[in-house]
Every structure is written in structure tokens, then in C-alpha cells.
Design a protein that fits this description.
It is built from two helices and 28 strands. It is mainly beta.
Length: about 375
């Protein structure tokens, strides 16, 4: 796939976003020297839906303007969440309802795989996080016997479950740690069966919760006013003054397309209050992924609209388009030159790098491939 397939007017929107930020009163400093390359944990398949899925590491070489595959490991089924670990390994979770976890070493060799019987009562929901002490892995799960959301508490080395906690809701999706090491969990709230089909959406019960990472005790729970908004993916963003916000990408589950097209995409937890700062959206009501961005803000993607939009606390009622390309989806924070705050966005054609003060960059995929929903920055040099 060559860059000529990307409309010039779309690429220019990447550069034009910087001027829009300035118009919104968001100051930017001049850029400094940029890192030469980035290592990105990613999952993908070939161009056909029946092609094998892989997880591995992509190398984005900014100087050569080229994207390469460092290593690729075939997977049992479609994956979802990818978690880079401190030793350079990659923990991959099977897509919901998930039946496997796989650890891949820094050379691309699978070193551990945990399989779960598809008939088991409790199956994986697609995301994992390592605990603050480094000895545990927490996974989001669903108990199909009760319909309740669960956190699987697992030994980090063996990945075997040693405990199980209730999430205070149903269908937990992504989870992160807060500053104290407690769990922040987005309960998606959508009733689903074993075939992953949604049902009885009138019972939706989405929430954000904080759980004590020592024992699973529910410490706090937040909801938004509209019960048909599913809180799904989350990211922390820190402003220069140290203020920390949690952004939550939401997906609308209203029965009418017109309602979904007007639904907000973003909720923000700030000063312990969960707010919906803007009704601006993508025309579909589908927040696919989220990443921290410039000065305490966030970028939310929507693959249905082919759009990634910046929210910033300096202009809280706006979403500013920063990438507008087909299948804009997976997001990763990319600090880049000062003042930082860039993002890496996967699209149908390749990687797009956006930054508030550096030139936008497009790198075509190294071969025909379809990226999955999420990726993560491992490091840069």
C-alpha cells in the first residue's frame, strides 16, 4: 500500500490541526530534536479476514521514513489487548470471549500460553495490566453463569489464576492502575452471550470503578447520565502542572442510528468527578481507542468515521480533528519533541504520527496487513 493512495487533502489536515489548536487558545512551544525511531507492540492479520493473526514489534524509523516488522508471532485466534512488560516481553490477550493469554519474549518466541476451555463459566474480556508490585497480572473477565464482571488475579510468571474479584458491574473491559496502585476498571455494561452477541440492552449498566488492588474491595463507582453509553477504553493524561485526568472512550448503544450519531465520545474523570465535557462527536457515537495527548488532553479515535480527534482542557467544549483517514483506530501516546503530547495512529494505509509542534509523518505498512484495534509504544531512541 503506497502513500499515493492517501488523498493529499487528508494528509494536510494533520498539519492544519496545529493551526486549529492555536485558534483555540492552546499555546505550543517550538519543537526540538526528534527521536530517530520507535518500537511499537502491535497485532495484525493479512488483508483477508481469514488470514492468520500475528503479534509482534514494529519499528518506525523516522529518519528513513520506513516501517519494518522486527518480529511476528502467529496467534491462536484474533487478539485484543497488548501489554508490553518491563523485561521486553509482550503479553497478548485473546479477543472477547477470550480463551487464551500468551507471553512473547523480546526475540518473538512464545514462552508461555495459558488456555481456558471455551465452556468454562469465566472467560477473558480482552485486557490485562501488571500490578504495582510486579508479581500479579489482573485480567478483565465475565462470569457467564451470573453475568457479573470479574477481575482475574493471576501469578505474573505462570499466568494461573489465584483469586477472582467482582467488578461491581458487568462486562469489564479495559483496566489501569491509579497513582496508589489500585485498579481503575471500565465496566462496559453490555449484556453479551457466549457468542458475543448483545442482548437486552435495556439492562445496560456501565460504570467506572476503583477497586482496592489488595483485596478487590469496591472503593468508588462513577456513572454517566445516559445508560446507553458504554465506557470502554481508558487512558491517563498528566498536565504540566501535575494535574492528572483519566479519559474514557465511550460507545453508544442506542436503538436508533440518529441517537447514536449525536452521542458524545468522551468522558473525563477530573478531581474525582466524572464529566462529559463536550457533546462533539464523530457522527457515529463510536470511540474506538484513546491515548493521552498534549498538555493533559486526549485523542479519541473512531474507525467508523475514519477520524481521530483531540480534546484539550484549554478548550473543553471542542474536539479538534488531527487525523482523518480510513480505519483510524489503534492509538498510542508518543511524547516526541518538546512540548510532547503527540500520538501514533494506525489507519488502513499505515501509521500516522501527529504532534502539536512537529511535522506530521505517514509510514506505509511494510506489506499488505490489517492492524487490530490496539497497539502500544514500547520505547524510542
Amino acid at each position: 500500500m503506497e502513500m499515493k493512495n492517501m488523498h493529499r487533502r487528508d494528509f494536510l489536515k494533520l498539519a492544519g490541526a496545529c493551526s486549529l489548536l492555536a485558534q483555540g487558545g492552546i499555546a505550543m512551544a517550538a519543537s526540538e530534536s526528534e527521536p530517530q525511531r520507535a518500537l511499537i507492540a502491535a497485532a495484525w492479520r493479512g488483508p483477508n479476514p481469514t488470514d492468520t493473526y500475528y503479534a509482534g514489534v514494529l519499528v518506525a524509523d523516522w529518519a528513513r521514513k520506513k516501517l519494518d516488522i522486527r518480529h511476528a508471532t502467529p496467534l491462536p485466534t484474533r487478539p485484543h489487548g497488548l501489554l508490553p512488560e518491563e523485561d521486553g516481553s509482550l503479553l497478548v490477550t485473546g479477543v472477547r470471549p477470550g480463551t487464551w493469554l500468551m507471553r512473547i519474549d523480546p526475540e518473538g518466541k512464545p514462552v508461555r500460553q495459558l488456555d481456558i476451555e471455551p465452556s468454562a463459566n469465566v472467560l477473558l474480556n480482552g485486557h490485562a495490566i501488571v500490578g504495582k508490585a510486579g508479581d500479579l497480572v489482573f485480567t478483565t473477565e465475565t462470569d457467564f453463569a451470573s453475568g457479573r464482571g470479574k477481575i482475574g488475579v493471576r501469578d505474573r510468571i505462570t499466568l494461573k489464576k489465584i483469586d477472582e474479584w467482582d467488578t461491581g458491574g458487568m462486562e469489564p473491559h479495559q483496566l489501569l492502575l491509579d497513582a496508589e496502585g489500585n485498579l481503575m476498571v471500565a465496566n462496559g455494561g453490555i449484556p453479551r452471550n457466549r457468542a458475543d452477541k448483545k442482548f437486552d440492552l435495556a439492562r445496560m449498566d456501565s460504570s467506572l470503578v476503583r477497586l482496592d488492588a489488595r483485596n478487590g474491595k469496591l472503593l468508588r463507582q462513577w456513572t454517566v447520565d445516559d445508560s446507553r453509553l458504554s465506557l470502554r477504553h481508558i487512558a491517563w493524561s498528566t498536565a504540566p502542572n501535575g494535574e492528572r485526568r483519566l479519559g474514557i472512550a465511550m460507545q453508544a448503544e442506542h436503538g436508533e442510528a440518529a441517537q447514536r450519531s449525536r452521542a458524545p465520545l468522551l468522558a473525563v474523570l477530573e478531581e474525582d468527578q466524572l464529566i462529559v465535557p463536550t457533546r462533539a462527536n464523530d457522527g457515529f457515537g463510536y470511540g474506538g481507542d484513546i491515548a493521552a495527548a498534549y498538555n493533559g488532553g486526549f485523542v479519541v479515535s473512531s474507525n467508523q468515521a475514519g477520524l481521530a480527534q483531540l480534546w484539550h482542557p484549554g478548550a473543553p467544549d471542542k474536539l479538534t480533528p488531527v487525523v482523518q483517514l480510513e480505519e483510524a483506530y489503534a492509538m498510542a501516546e508518543w511524547n516526541g519533541p518538546q512540548p510532547g503530547g503527540g500520538v501514533l495512529v494506525s489507519t488502513a494505509l499505515g501509521l500516522v504520527r501527529w504532534h502539536p509542534s512537529a511535522k506530521p509523518v505517514f509510514l506505509a505498512w511494510p506489506k499488505p496487513m490489517a492492524l487490530d484495534n490496539h497497539w502500544a509504544l514500547i520505547g524510542e531512541a
